[in-house]
UniProtKB/TrEMBL annotation:
The keyword Transport applies. InterPro entries: ATPase_a/bsu_AS, ATPase_alpha/beta_chains, ATPase_F1/V1_b/a_C, P-loop_NTPase. SUPFAM superfamilies: C-terminal domain of alpha and beta subunits of F1 ATP synthase, P-loop containing nucleoside triphosphate hydrolases. This is F-type H+-transporting ATPase subunit beta. GO terms for cellular component: proton-transporting ATP synthase complex. Belongs to the ATPase alpha/beta chains family. It is found in: Membrane. Keywords: ATP synthesis, ATP-binding, CF(1), Ion transport, Membrane, Nucleotide-binding, Translocase, Transport. The keyword Secreted does not apply.
Length: 352
């Protein structure tokens, strides 16, 4: 779609310092080039010969000059629970809300590893903390920066060629440094920067809007932790703006809504069963309970960063694979399968 195309302005300005003069000498109207750079003229309305001339001036290909897919969309992580219920928004901000020892830094390290595999540049803004788990994030980050100046310089060097994901501690939000960094990096046409915010002091759990505006919220669930279900992301409280409006595929949205409805009822029934036993729930509710138990078990997933400790290989599932599996569970195909057979695995077994 035309609105998903942008000019790679940083690349163009870096390679052609006197852009207005160079464009005029190449036979282009300076006003047209200026309007393309500021976004006043959409790329889709530009003449092909104009784009070809700009690429020639910059000494690059059209694929390098034009950034595709810059609209609001999700980034697949290969993590079932996240991609299904609260996807990462490309160029957005993800907030982790957790109490101590809930695995937020393990999840951030896993996110860094997975996005690095997808071609993202991974940068960690070191909070100089000795919080357990920080070392895992550092190990999975290509670049570790100690100051706002360092991270700004690193991003400017990287963003011409790659999308970037930055891991940032809440201390940088409170100090105002993150806001200052955002302001200094605003540039039309630049590749998106996705920010993952964690709270190493675990103070945001009781605060409303402690990170400021978020595009994705991942709230960790103590009950899931207590039952060793990881990632321990609450499927009912975790949300994403990419689920709003026209941005999400209709099949994804319908499947997610059905899964969330089932897990909401399952959670209610778990409380009743824990307090009074299975005798107090009806036969239809028992079927829902068993289906919810299977879906919850399926959403537990081994991580790559945990392989040395669990001896279980990490699993990556495409969104399509996750949706197909979840639909099979919701449709009753796995009703005769023990939840333990679905727990901490990748894909469901293929149909016979």
């Amino acid at each position: 779609m035309d609105e998903e195309l942008q000019l790679n302005v940083p690349l163009l300005r870096r390679r052609v310092p006197n852009l207005t003069t160079a464009a005029r000498e190449a036979g282009l109207r300076a006003a047209t080039v200026s309007n393309l750079c500021t976004g006043k003229i959409p790329i889709g309305r530009a003449e092909v010969k104009t784009l070809v001339a700009l690429a020639s001036l910059a000494g690059c290909s059209l694929d390098e000059l034009i950034i595709r897919g810059s609209g609001l969309r999700m980034i697949e992580t290969g993590i079932k629970a996240l991609d299904l219920f609260a996807p990462v928004v490309r160029g957005g901000t993800v907030g982790f809300v957790a109490r101590p020892n809930m695995g937020q830094l393990v999840l951030l390290a896993e996110l860094m590893l997975r996005l690095k595999k997808r071609g993202f540049a991974t940068v960690f803004w070191d909070p100089h903390s000795d919080t357990p788990g920080i070392n895992h994030v550092q190990e999975q980050s290509e670049f570790i920066c100690s100051s706002k100046e360092d991270i700004h310089k690193q991003i400017v060097e990287l963003r011409e060629e790659k999308d970037i994901v930055i891991g940032v501690d809440r201390s940088k939000v409170l100090s105002g440094e993150l806001l200052s960094l955002r302001e200094s990096l605003k540039e039309v046409g630049a590749r998106p920067i996705t920010i993952a915010l964690v709270d190493t002091k675990c103070e945001v759990i009781d605060e409303e809007g402690a990170y400021g505006p978020l595009d994705t919220l991942w709230k960790f669930d103590a009950d899931l932790i207590g039952r060793s279900i990881y990632p321990a992301i609450d499927p009912l409280a975790s949300i994403s703006t990419v689920l709003e409006g026209p941005y999400l595929d209709a099949v994804h949205l319908a499947t997610q809504q059905r899964a969330r409805k089932l897990l909401r009822r399952y959670k209610e029934l778990r409380s009743l069963v824990t307090a009074q036993g299975f005798d107090k729930i009806s036969a239809p509710d028992l079927l829902l309970y068993n289906k919810g138990e299977r879906l919850e078990a399926y959403l537990a997933q081994p991580f790559y960063v945990s392989e040395p400790y669990t001896n279980v290989p990490g699993e990556w599932l495409t969104l399509y694979e996750t949706l197909e599996d979840v639909k099979r569970i919701l449709g009753g195909e796995m009703d005769h399968t023990e939840p333990s057979e679905l727990f901490f695995k990748g894909r469901l077994a293929a149909r016979a």
